[in-house]
Amino acid sequence: MTYPMSRQRRLDPPDELFDDPAPVRPLTFADGHVGWLVRGHAAGRAVLSDPRFSTEPDLQHPLVASRHLPKGRVPPGFFLRMDAPDHTHYRRLLTGHFTVRRMNQLQPRIEEIAATCLDDMERAGPPADLVRDFALPIPSLVICELLGVPYEDRENFQSESARLLRLDSSPGEMESAVDDLVKYFHTLIARKRVEPANDLLTGLIGGGELEDDEIAGMGFLLLVAGHETTANMLALGTFALLEHPEQLALVRDDPAVIDNAVEELLRYLSIIHVGPTRTAVEDVVIEGTTIRAGECVALSIPAANRDPSRFADPCALDVRQPAGSHLSFGHGIHQCLGQQLARIEMRVAYPALLRRFPSLRLAIPAEEVPMRADMSIYGVHSLRVTW
Length: 387
Fold this sequence. Notes:
Elements: E1 24-28, E2 34-38, H1 41-49, E3 53-54, H2 86-95, H3 100-105, H4 107-124, E4 128-129, H5 130-135, H6 137-147, H7 154-165, H8 171-194, H9 200-207, H10 212-243, H11 245-253, H12 258-269, E5 277-280, E6 284-286, E7 289-291, E8 296-299, H13 301-304, H14 339-356, E9 361-362, E10 384-386
Parallel strand pairs: 2-8
Antiparallel strand pairs: 1-2, 3-5, 4-10, 5-8, 6-7, 9-10
Helix pairs in contact: 4-6, 4-14, 6-10, 7-8, 8-10, 10-11, 10-14, 11-14, 12-14
């Protein structure tokens, strides 16, 4: 089989992921390489935590024909595509900036940003595009302030991010987007050497351990990851709640449910639409299947997060159901560095939105909501709502 992309129902993974219950199945990649699809939860955790599986781009095969940068085009410092010890070196420099304590200190500012967005929505009146007016501004402004990126530059970096994430972007378009974002960060770095500030980029510059190329690559990674994923979770999560009004009422009316609701929405929606991928550097046995050195493995996070051997009634959205150990933030050394920030943004944003507008509803039929099936991160392109 090839990697399943077409979703028969908007909030559910492709049906083909569940045609065969085997946790590891043969898969033909876009370039003809025959590797493996991992769809089981335990198998996914095993692959993501095993150092015998590499994330180095030179070893990878594309899942989708255009989703493959030319070799060597991953910028220095872009540690998502590095193995230990290089990955360990870069991540260590950032860990202290993303502790639970430091993220909790940001909560009042996140609440302020969310309230401002809601004030603007209320002042403008319905209908509104929840992506443009709420879901995208909150994480974009938060990550900009954390990194030290001017928010007024958002149209540029959001459009470049979209080029990187579109499934139909050519390798040349992706390469151009990478170059443009790296150049942008070089400009910021030069500015901060002259005018330092209390932000992460200034801290990395002052640490003296990194070259500018490395800081630019790290900043590029954090900026794109820091706004795209959470923005899509906020919008798609709201869509899911509007389609499940009994669950929406729980999130709106019961403050005790929000922590688990966030985890359940992360599990149920699983917005990583394509990949991640790993390549075996030696023979590895996963769930009884031998994966040979050089073979590439694609993980389906949506399938793993709906594995009935791990989750009770996995295809139901139940914000009271314990959803711990989902793989939406990954697992192992590449587990999402900013996961605590994303959680806080969602814990703040969902209740704030639903309590400000208790009659919130779709302004168009659900089947007309434009879905991001054309992007590597799933979600909605826009979400027209009224109240």
